[in-house]
Amino acid sequence: MKSTFLSRSELIGFAILALIIFIALPMALDSFRLNLFGKYLTYAFVAVGLVLCWGAGGILSLGQGVFFGLGGYCMAMFLKLEASTPENTSIQSTPGIPDFMDWNQLTELPIWWQPFHSLAFSLFAVVAVPVFFAFIIGVAMFKRRVGGVYFAIITQAFAAILTILIIGQQGYTGGVNGITDLRTLLGWDIRTDEAKEVLYFVNGALLFVVLFIAQFVRKSKLGRLLIAMRDQEDRVRFSGYDVAGFKIFIFCLGAAFAGIGGAMFTLQVGFMSPTLVGIVPSIEMVIFCAVGGRLSILGAVYGALLVNWAKTSFSESFPELWLLGLGGLFIAVVMLFPNGLAGIWSQHIEPRLKALFAPRGAPKSASQSTPAE
């Protein structure tokens, strides 16, 4: 049977998510809480990429924080340079460079910072830099048929290495504090409540662009090949397909999604630091995907929203126990509902809705009928 881009149930799912993001949340939340959910949505970019890499392709990456952080740092560098004009930094020993460079006794802007004076280049780098590093890692690993738990551990090591590098090069990266005090985007003050609300809607619109790209990949021949590689990689290879090439592509696509999410995080929150790059945030990003359902791109969005909302709620109410509460939520969902929130919908809610709205006297579907004895 020929597959359509969006089935009826998928179209309803996209419509419900759009109503929640663009209507329900803005109407129900104040500016502060809406900005929090805007931050949560930036993590959804990573979770959607993980659905393609891990859920469809069987590539478990524990280093997606690397790509999230690289995209965020590329945007933060542009914003920091815009905030570091000679007028704004006149009290420094060297006006015209970021404050953390002046504190570390640098007297001129490093040459690799120079292109980030341009917004166009910075937007290009938000995607290109994570994709470049993902390509290097992918070629090095997949061409040598490194996969499974070995690949997961290696990506985790890359996350640790990048964190150490960022912290160690304090004069060039801001060190453990990261890049802070980001003020304007082409003269537009991004610190106001009105700006945060506009960025929230931009964030939501970009997320839907990413969701449609992911849906296109899932419905294409590439999506079917990814599932085949996940289940029977050797058969796909013996059929003449370049398995390593497909893996590299989907890994790079997930990195691009993560980079966009990182850039939107920087704009939404107003800083970028190495705490968002390392092993712990990378594992949390996998949890978002697992809780939402690693086979569902919409489930990944709900997983990112639910886990981060729970994290915020637990930390506010039980500051000493929130990690236990977050871990308990993850364990409960995985043990009771292995397919995550998407599995709850498809197995328990959707069949009841279909039965409720089905015409009376309509024959039962194959899934509802009792198997013959």
From TrEMBL:
One GO MF term attached to the UniProt entry: branched-chain amino acid transmembrane transporter activity
Q: Which coarse location class describes where this protein primarily resides?
A: membrane
Topology in the lipid bilayer is annotated as: Multi-pass membrane protein
Would I find Repeat among this entry's keywords?
Answer: no
Q: Which CDD domains match?
A: TM_PBP1_LivM_like
* Residues annotated as transmembrane: 12-29, 41-63, 119-142, 149-168, 198-217, 238-265, 285-309, 321-345
Per UniProt, subcellular location reads as: Cell membrane
A Pfam family for this UniProt protein?
Answer: BPD_transp_2
The source's domain of life comes to: Bacteria
Which keywords describe this protein according to UniProt? Answer: Cell membrane, Membrane, Transmembrane, Transmembrane helix
> Which regions form coiled coils?
none
Q: Name one GO cellular component term.
A: plasma membrane
Question: Which protein is depicted?
Answer: Amino acid/amide ABC transporter membrane protein 2, HAAT family
